[in-house]
Amino acid sequence: MSRELARELDVKGLHCPLPILRTRRQLDHMKAGEELIVLVTDPASVIDFRHFCNTTAHELLEHSAEGGVFTYRIRRGEG
């Protein structure tokens, strides 16, 4: 799925646990296989998003950091 077809969630400025909670809520309204790009400024998100995807059916496709913004690309899993 191209970046243009993925949904985007901007949670910059929010701190743990809000970025994960908002991401979970958004993914709950998506179909399996759809992708979500999440923009976060909380440095703890690196650990949080890996753990979130490792403990759910969602797949962390990629992540990057640039200019204090962490970007996560997640594919909605089954269930």
Automatic annotation (TrEMBL):
PROSITE patterns, per database record: UPF0033
Domain UPF0033: 9-33
Name of the protein this chain belongs to: Regulator of disulfide-bond formation, SirA family protein
InterPro entries, A to Z: TusA-like, TusA-like_sf
Entry-linked PANTHER family: SULFUR CARRIER PROTEIN YEDF-RELATED
Homology family: Belongs to the sulfur carrier protein TusA family.
Pfam families noted in UniProt: TusA
